[in-house]
Design a protein that fits this description.
CATH class of the largest domain: Alpha Beta
Catalytic activity: L-valine + 2-oxoglutarate = 3-methyl-2-oxobutanoate + L-glutamate; L-leucine + 2-oxoglutarate = 4-methyl-2-oxopentanoate + L-glutamate; L-isoleucine + 2-oxoglutarate = (S)-3-methyl-2-oxopentanoate + L-glutamate
Structural class: alpha+beta
Organism: Denitrovibrio acetiphilus (strain DSM 12809 / NBRC 114555 / N2460)
Bound molecules: pyridoxal-5'-phosphate, 2-OXO-4-methylpentanoic acid
GO biological process, one term: isoleucine biosynthetic process
Number of helices: 8
Family: Belongs to the class-IV pyridoxal-phosphate-dependent aminotransferase family.
Keywords: Amino-acid biosynthesis, Aminotransferase, Branched-chain amino acid biosynthesis, Pyridoxal phosphate, Transferase
């Protein structure tokens, strides 16, 4: 698909001035340009890279009223060779289409999405931060734009990609483990719902659970399934635990859990690091007993933004606290984090073929 490219003159382009790792926020900064593609009458058209700015959307747009809105999250990294590398964009593009199907939205061909993201990344390569734990975060999304209040899927859509030079998702980055609240009060998703889609409604409804968890000085809730028996995931990452025989256990993907690309990638990597991997339904009672008995030695979460985030403590509404291991960052979690991020950042060979170098395109510049 031809992408019309209207770039700001060099003199009007900004560039991040935040150079230290600690103060580079996650998701707040924007690069100079964005990608837009529109859909109408069954066709994706008018692909364009334009200066970052407001979208014009009618107040009656379906996305605003009935939540036909899906998104993705991916990352690109600047390597020491001075080239920009994108991480598994194709997987994000495929998952966007899975979400699209679940929300009765049109698929957008994977090659169109990837080409669009690559071209935008090329234009914005100078925005990729270099400090530790940072990346150029890629946020594709699609919204239903038809101005129609009847409860039906929109007939028109916009696909947009914006970029955000970002630091670690959890403040303090990998140096700090997070605490999770175990509660039966809130659920993220139910079987037959949209839990395995990356749709906005899943996130908006999670704010109240996150707010509640803050009362216990926790970062988030550990969501259980609707029967309160099984661990599902956390609001922005899959959950994992590590047993003392070096098995990494991730809850089996169901239709109420997001199929994390990080989890899938780490699962591919783990055998080479000497770990066994298991995906199964994890009973919350057995998980907590496993921590108490010492059978479970580490726990945490996997996600694009969260990368590999260690969990130090599980908190309960009655005030009880269960500490995992010694409450610090376990050596296995550290080993997995280091091996995974070494590949992303080009410090270790990309044997699994996860990275794609962002080409230097020739532009057909719009005047
Ligand atoms: N689970 C939820 C609910 C998420 O929002 C995310 C983030 O994308 C993840 C898990 C991790 O998925 P991924 O590794 O593909 O980013
Ligand atoms: C991601 O990890 O990319 C996400 O989308 C999670 C989040 C910031 C909502």
């Amino acid at each position: 698909m031809e992408i019309k490219t209207t770039l700001l003159p060099e003199s009007q382009r900004k560039c991040s001035t935040i150079k230290d790792a600690e103060s580079l926020p996650f998701g707040k900064l924007r690069s100079d340009h964005m990608l837009l593609i529109d859909y109408a009458k069954g066709v994706w058209k008018d692909a364009r890279i334009v200066p970052y700015g407001s979208l014009s959307i009618m107040p009656g747009a379906v996305a605003l009223h009935y939540g036909q809105s899906i998104f993705e999250g991916a990352k690109a990294f600047m390597h020491e060779d001075g080239e920009l590398y994108a991480f598994r964009l194709e997987e994000n593009a495929k998952r966007l289409n899975v979400s699209a199907n679940q929300l009765c939205m049109p698929e957008i061909p994977v090659d169109v999405q990837v080409e669009g993201m690559m071209k935008l990344l090329d234009v914005e390569r100078k925005w990729c931060p270099m400090q530790p734990e940072s990346s150029l975060y890629v946020r594709p999304f699609m919204i239903g734009t038809e101005d129609a209040l009847g409860m039906a899927p929109s007939s028109t859509y916009t696909f947009c990609v914006l970029l955000s030079p970002s630091g670690a998702y959890y403040s303090g980055g990998f140096k700090h483990a997070v605490r999770l609240l175990v509660t039966e009060r809130y659920h993220r998703a139910v079987s037959g719902g949209t839990g395995s889609a990356k749709c906005c409604g899943n996130y908006g409804q999670a704010f109240q659970a996150a707010r509640f968890s803050k009362k216990y000085d926790a970062s988030q809730v550990l969501y259980l399934d609707a029967s309160n028996q099984y661990i599902e995931e956390v609001g922005s990452m899959n959950h994992f635990h590590i047993t003392k025989d070096k098995t990494v256990v991730i809850p089996e993907f169901t239709d109420s859990i997001l199929r994390s690309i990080t989890s899938l990638s780490v699962m591919e990597l783990l055998p080479s690091l000497g770990y066994k991997v298991r995906q199964e339904r994890v009973k919350i009672t057995e998980f907590l007993d496993g921590i108490r008995s010492g059978e479970i030695i580490e726990a945490g979460g996997f996600g694009t933004a969260a990368v590999v985030t260690p969990v130090s403590e599980y908190i309960f509404e009655n005030g009880d606290i269960l500490t995992v291991g010694d409450g610090g960052i376990g050596e296995n979690t550290r080993k997995i984090y280091e091996a995974y991020t070494a590949i992303q950042t080009g410090k270790a060979a990309d044997k699994l073929g996860w990275l794609q170098k962002v080409p230097h395109f020739q532009y057909d510049l719009a005047r």
